[in-house]
Design a protein that fits this description.
The chain folds into 2 domains: about 180 residues, Growth Hormone, Chain: A, CATH 1.20.1250; about 180 residues, Growth Hormone, Chain: A (Up-down Bundle). The protein is built from 16 helices and no strands. Helix 12 packs across helix 14. The longest helix is centred in the middle third of the chain and has 30 residues. It starts with a helix and ends in a 13-residue tail after the last helix.
Length: about 400
Amino acid sequence: MRGWTWLVILTSRVSLNLGVRVTYPFLPAIARGLGIPFEQAGLLVAARHFVGLSSPFWGVVGDRKGHAWCMTAGLLFLFSGALAVYLSRGFCAAMTGFVLLGLAKSAYDPSVQAFASARVPYSLRARAIGILETSWALSWLVGIPLSGLLISRFGWQSPFLLLAGAAVLSLGATRSLREIRSAPPQPSGLELPTRSTPAAPGVLNTTTVLVLLVTLSLTLANENIVIVYGAWLEESFSLQVRALGFFSILVGVAELVGELTVAAVVDRLGKRRGILAGLILVGLTYLVLPFCKVSLLIALTGLGAMFFLFEFTLVSIFPYVSELVPARRGILLALNYTCAILGRFIGSLTGPWLWQRHHDLLLLAALSVASQLLAFILILCVRKDAKGMEHGA
C-alpha cells in the first residue's frame, strides 16, 4: 500500500480508538454533564462493548461486499455516534451515540486488518499490522491530553464534536484512496458451490478455534489485573488521581513500544514464536507483580512491563490469524475481535469481584497466570497452519 493510504488509515483508526478510550478518564465528567449517576454512566460503556459482539456480522459482510465497504460503514457510524453524543442532553440520546460508536469499532477494526492483510505479503505482515496498531497507543498519547484540554475549556461534549469532524475528514480521504476505489469484490464464502466453483473453506476448524481461545484467555488474564491496578496502587502507595493520570502516559508509551516491537522483530522471529514468547513473559509479569509493592518504582516498572508485553503478544496474534483461512480472513479476524471483547468482559467481572472480597493482588495474579498458562497450552496444540505456513511462522 502507498504511504498516503497508511496515513489515512492510521489517522482514521486514531479517531475511532479515541472514541473508545476518551470515556475512561472522563466518564465522571460525562456523567455530570448528563446529570446522571456515575453507575448509570457506566451503562453507556457497557452498551458500547455489547454491540462490539456484532463484529462477526461485519466480518461476513466484509467478505461478501469487500472490506473497504465495512471501513466506510465504520466511519459513518463514528460520525453519527460522535454527533449524537455531542448533541445529547439526556441519557437515552447519549446511549444511542455510544451504541453507534461501538458499531463503528466493530465494523472498522477487523475490516481494516483484513484490508491490509490482503495487500501485504505474510512475510511482512507483522510489520504492517504492528504499525497499524500503533493507532491504539497514539489515540491515548495524543487524544487524551487534547480531550482534557477541550473539556476544561468548552465542556464535556467538545471531544465528540472533534471526533465527528475527524470522521468526516477520514471518510472523504478514505473514499478517495485508489486502493478503495479499485478494490475488487471479496469472495463471500456463502454462495453454493457449482461444478466450476469449489466450496469455500470453513472458518472454524481445530486450528482456528484453538487460536481464538488463545485470544480470549490472553485478554481475560490481562483485564483481570488491569481493571484493579489503580485501586492496588492507591491502596499500596496512597497514590492520588493526578499521579495515576501521569502513569497513564507511561501506559501509552509502553503500548506504543509493544506495537513497534512487533513491527520490528516478529516477521523475522516468526508469528507463532512471537506469541509463545509473549505468553511466557506476560505470565511471568503476572506472577511477580504482587511482590513488586516493596517500592513504587518497582511496582510501576512491573506494570509497565505488563502493558508492553501484553500489547506485543496481542498484536502478534493478528497477523497470525490473518493467514489461517485467507479466503475468509474478514470473518476470522472479526471472530478474533469478538473473543478479545469477551475476554475483557469476563476479566472485568472477575477482577473487581476478587479485589472487593480479598484486596489481595496475589489471588488475581493466580487467576491471570492460570488463564495465561491455558493460552500457552492451546497455542502449543496448534498444528501446521493453512497454505503451508511454517509451524513456527
